[in-house]
Amino acid sequence: xxxxxxxxxxxxxxxxxxxxxxxxxxxxxxxxxxxxxxxxxxxxxxxxxxxxxxxxxxxxxxxxxxxxxxxxxxxxxxxxxxxxxxxxxxxxxxxxxxxxxxxxxxxxxxxxxxxxxxxxxxxxxxxxxxxxxxxxxxxxxxxxxxxxxxxxxxxxxxxxxxxxxxxxxxxxxxxxxxxxxxxxxxxxxxxxxxxxxxxxxxxxxxxxxxxxxxxxxxxxxxxxxxxxxxxxxxxxxxxxxxxxxxxxxxxxxxxxxxxxxxxxxxxxxxxxxxxxxxxxxxxxxxxxxxxxxxxxx
Length: 297
Ligand SMILES: [Zn+2]
Hints:
Blueprint: E1 4-10, E2 13-26, H1 28-31, H2 37-43, E3 52-53, E4 58-69, E5 74-77, H3 100-106, E6 116-118, E7 131-134, E8 137-140, E9 146-150, H4 151-157, H5 173-183, E10 187-190, E11 195-197, E12 201-205, E13 214-220, E14 223-229, H6 236-239, H7 251-268, E15 271-274, E16 282-288, E17 291-296
Parallel strand pairs: 5-6, 6-9, 9-10, 14-15
Antiparallel strand pairs: 1-2, 2-4, 3-4, 4-5, 7-8, 11-12, 12-13, 13-14, 15-16, 16-17
Zinc ion is lined by residues 123, 125-126, 230, 275-276.
């Protein structure tokens, strides 16, 4: 059960993390090209022991799914990176064989029981388990689910406009992890304005990391949470929100979206549910004259 996180209760909705894998040796100079080693040394003070690999010179990233159970629906938010995918331009996720579906079962989730799959965006580590390989064909892993994607992500990654250097890490993802779901008639799209969904959710446009990236707010019983997607990759960005990662495709927009979500999380005291922070991957943001501060839940 080591790969299951604690359950968080948001009103009458429960949220549990199912981890696909931990990336343990991410060099800060690679992830944050705009951060000097001196700045990183200072920023380390804002990190928890679970955020760094000893001797505190590499960052740890988690790749996981949030399992959300409302009184009426079973929902998965982001689907990690998947098995058997051909990712020659991204060796980290190339031809994997990971026990993700077993981990989901340990969390009480059978693929057939999933009602909705939300992808915050269509990058390699967020859409992979949308499909699985069956008799040489990519088929939807969750055959009874509606898959919900930002429309701008579908439009971009299905077009030649995305065939560029910035999208090399996610090359092939649309074709093997999104298109089969669309062709099966299981996809629904969220327009550029975002908006309410299933009573308790709200899709919030947070473009920048990717062209149509969206965060997803959850409000239930007077409590709030926010599935922020890749607005931030590590805790370091809470105190240094101007820092983009090497994976942020549209730099200025990414900074604006990070500020927007940090401000909203602090103002609403929402539980912030990250897609890449390790540890519990969840926590709270507070704000004062000195900037934003993070506390793990
Ligand atoms: Zn990601």
